[in-house]
Amino acid sequence: MVLDLTMSMAILAFMGALATIAGCLEDLESDVGSQSNPNSQVQLAPQMNFLHRIYNKAISGEPISNGLSAVIGGIVTTVMLNAKFFPLTAIVLGAFVAAIIYGIFATTSYAGRVASQSRFKQPLYMDIMRYTTPSIIAHNFIVCLCLVALAYIQSQILVPAHPFSIPFLALIWGISVGAIGSSVGDVHYGAEREFQNREFGCGLNTALSGRIVRRAESGLRNSIDNVWFCAKYGGPVTGIALGLTVFLSSWPTTVFGYTWIAIGVGVAIVLVMVILNRLLEINVKNAYGPYKEEKNEKEAAA
Asked: Does residue 240 fall inside a structural domain?
């Protein structure tokens, strides 16, 4: 019994590691393709006469696009497993197919958006498409690899095994990683990278829409510069958030099984996190105070 529990906890720790890698790479992939919350500002910039060299795909919201990519990887993996492929080979092939399809969507989305902005003289930089698209595909490949592997472990290795199929589990984790990347990672991209000329937490006045920062440390800014910046903090924080989500949501059932005790422990974890978040919010407000709207109004008037 102790040995089985030890092995289950070891597998759970591995699942947490896979989720951490997936979360980190998903956030960086959204940064390299400008699919984060500031995407609307990047899209609006040419209309405000702010031409840029930032890859702007935004196939859809991050949860939907990553859910689609993950479920494609899960379906291909399941087909390969039924054809008696080795699990690792099937997972790699599934992630590869999903990443290629994701790259196709990214390319057509970016080209289509720039074409629709031709009246605003926004150029379609072929060098940006040429060396940014492979980076998007590479990031998404690793994300799909980790998420499909996570779904495979839950469905085929864990005891008790998860009742859902690999594609469905991959879909759930794809939506989850996109939602976490959009909520956690974007704070360190939209507020600090695209709008470095604005005070952190100030929001964005309507009169300042589209005025993104376009100059990097050396030369004009592009999406690779954004990834370099976000890899320092936004990506790792997103990875830790998803890793903790997987670990904290799975270990009660691993230890106690599918029982009411496990449900109670899960509810307790949620309540503790809510309380800690509230205490953190109160401490931050006491330390820095509320942001004053007068600053935004003065900037808009200037």
From this structure: yes
